[in-house]
Each structure stands twice: as C-alpha cells, then as structure tokens.
Design goal:
The complex is a heterodimer of chains A (233) and B (247). By secondary structure, chain A is an alpha+beta fold. Helices cover 18% and strands 51% of the residues of chain A. Chain A contains 4 helices and 8 strands, in the order αααβββαβββββ. In chain A, strand 4 (136-155) and strand 5 (159-176) form a beta hairpin. Chain A is rod-shaped, with a radius of gyration of 40 Å. With 247 residues, chain B is mostly beta strands. Chain B has 2 domains: 24-97, SH3 type barrels; 104-246, Porin. Chain B has helices at residues 2-16, 81-84; strands at 27-29, 34-38, 47-52, 56-63, 66-71, 76-80, 110-119, 122-132, 137-147, 151-163, 170-185, 195-211, 214-226, 233-246. The longest helix of chain B has 15 residues, at 2-16. At the A-B interface, strand 1, strand 2, strand 3, strand 4 and strand 5 of A face helix 1, strand 4, strand 5 and strand 8 of B.
Amino acid sequence: MEISRLRLLLLSALAVSLLPGCAWFGRNRDEAPPAPASASAGASEATADQPVIEPKVERRDVKRARIDTEDFEAGLFAGVLSIEDFESNAVYGAHLSYHLTEDFFIEGTLGRSRAGRTSYEKLSGSADLLRGSERDYTYYALSAGWNALPGEVFVGGNRSYNTAFYLLAGVGSTRFGGDDLFTVNAGAGYKVLLKDWMAVHLDVRDYIFDSDLLGKKKIVNNLEAHLGISFFF
Amino acid sequence: MRCLHLSLWLLLALFSAGARADEPLPKVVVADPFIELHTGPGRGYPIFHVIERGQEVTIVKRRTDWFQVRSDRDVAGWVARGQMLATLEPTGEPLDLKEPTRENYMSRRWQGGVMGGDFGGASLISVFGGYAFSDNLAIELTLNHMPGDLSNAFSATLGLTHVFAPEWRLSPYFTLGTGLIYIEPKTTLVSTEDRTDQIGYVGVGLQFYLTRRFMLRSEYRKNIVFTSRNDNEEIDEWKYLGFACFF
C-alpha cells in the first residue's frame, strides 16, 4: 500500500514537470514565424502581416433567389342563372381570388347574363316590361370564402387530385332593369386541382336583392350554377 | 359590359406574363431531423415522404403558408412554414422568409382594401387604395358604390389619412378629403336628372392589425355634397367593417 502511494506521488510529479515542458517545446509554433533577415525593417513588417495559410476557397456569390408565391387565383366561368320571374339563362364571367391562408380566401366576381321574358309578357301579349338593354343583367360581388373540406379524389389506382369544398358569402351589386341593386350572395363550390397551378370549379350561388320591378317590392333569389377553370399565379 | 371585357383582357395579360425569365430556384438544406412532405398545401393532406437532415431541397413555389419543395430524387411535396423556418440557406444561415409583421406596418408604402356599410340609408360598397409617405400620413383614393332605394350613386374621393399610433395594434385615424359624387335616380321614380356634384368629407376610423399583412378597419365619414341648389346636403357614411392589406 505504501509503495503504490509513493508511486502515485512520483508519477504525479513527473506529469506536472513533463506536461508544461511539452508545451514549452511547441511555444514558438503558435507565434508568428520569425521574420527572415532582410535589408529594411519595412519589408519585414509587410511579411509579418501575411497570413500563414492562404485560404484557397473561392467565395461563392450567393444570390438570394425569390420564392415564387402563388396566392392569387384567376379564372373564367360559364353556367346557368335563374333570374326570378325572368327565366333561366346562360351566364358567364370571371373571378379573381386571393388566398389569405390555407383556409380562407377573398374573391371578386364579375358576371353577365341576359334576362328572358316573364310568363305575364308571354301570355298577355302586352308590351314588354323591359326595353332592350334593360334586360342585360350584370353583377359584381366581393366575397369571403372558407375551404371547409379539403381532400383528395382518386381516379384509378395511380392518380389522385387535391380537392376542396368551400363556402362563400359576400356583398355586391347587380345592374338589372336599368337600376343598380345591392346584392347579397352566398353559396358553395367544389374545386378539383388538376395541376398545382390549375383547378376546375363547380359553384352554386344564390344572389339575393330587393326588387320593385314588378310593382311591389319583394326579395328576389337568383340561383346560379356554373362550371369554371382557374389558374394560380 | 365594358368592365367585363376589360377584366377578361386583364386576365389574359396576367397569364401571358407568367412566362418569366428562368432564374435558378432557391435551394435549402434540411436542418431539422427531418421534414414532412404533404400531398397538398394544407394540414389535412397526408404526409407521403420525409427528407432527412443534411439533404438539399429545391423550393419550387409557395402558397399561403406552404412550400412546394423537390428533393434530389425528384420527389415533390408540400412542407409547412414552421418546418421550412428550420432549414438553412446555402450561406448556412436560417432561411429568411422576410415575413411581414406588425413592425413592417411602419415601413409600408401601399395599402388597399374593401369596406362595406351604409351611406345615408343606401348600402355602401367601398374600395380604397393608399400610398403612405410617412409613418403616420398617407394619401388615399376611395371608390364608393351606393345602390339605394331611391337612387344609385358612385363617388370617387381623394384624401389624407393620419394614423395616430401606427405602432399600436389598434389605432385610431383621422381622414379629410374631397372628390366627386354621381347620383342617378331610380328608373321607377318620376325622372329627375342625373347629377354630378363635388363632395367634401371629414372622418374618423379605427384600424386593427390582424396578422401578417392584413388589417381590419372601421370608419365614419361626414360628407358635405356641394349641390347646385341653395342648400348643401350632409350625408353620414358608416363603413362598419373593412379588410385591408399593406405592401
């Protein structure tokens, strides 16, 4: 026991004296290399400034590329609009959407149709209620939408498309019978994304306004169903 | 009709503008243990692939808070923003998405939005756009459409808006301006003539910072219509709620 303790003491003493000694040998390497003998002091200073290792890494010129953001969606549509008392007619138009989040978007819609004749006009044979351009039906709507049910459809074994069932509601104006009418709209749609940048829509919407075109003021519901194609950009 | 045609042409122009110069797509290195690739840009779409730490991915595009990325093996999928924030750019720095925040509102230049409300009994649909030339002060153009029971009116006004405390989440603002109003009486009424008058207004409003670059707004304006009759007309204009974006 006594021997081993003595041995430990000796080994420690050896370690204490040797380890700083090793460092002492290498002390010059950390410092700047001694300036070579030269004629002028200025030249020796210049060499001292030079780095020991010349890095041969070429500096990469990193240009921060812009990420292509595709939050806008624009499209065209065509379908059928049932104008209350004035028959069902073809409707066509365009829309522009901005996707705020994956769930919500805002949309502006423009549409155009032309009203037919009321049953009264057809049966009575009397003068028409509306003259030429007064039968033109144009509307715009600003709506908020909610992608309520995002999902996928599967076609065959190897093909799937992203889809979304969405609800929309908003306000706008309809020009019909020569007047502008404040219009509230609400509806739902189903969208299938054929590509990441292209979608096909099927929309059903109700456009509601107050009308006194047929004498007494009443609430008019005009239902529209349309098929559309849209592109993200 | 002309409006519709114009918008169709605009749409076409937008699509044709899609063919832009090919610049290399940005690449990032995955720094999280892995990132998850969804089949679509939404949390409900299933995860079908993962890419491990240290691998490089190409960012193809962004839609709302989702990024379409492509791996070295040509697998493409959608990654949530939260995971993208943990990736590194080629410089070794975390990916900087330069997301707009409330602080960015101070450095905004352009702002635009839509509002709805009531204009002296008529319904009001309003679109506005503005340019800020200081933290507080902006010049704003407002286009109003007021379809009412007795008449249908349009107005265009230009004014100055002073936001009292743009650094607050909820801040009041003051607005003052002038413009033109066009009033067209309903066809069912005994015909009075269409008229265009000058309009002046003073108003107050509140704006609320929602998130990212979006704001909510509410506004009241007192309008004076300078008619050609003996008396000027005073009209209260309430914009109950509006939505705005800044850029």
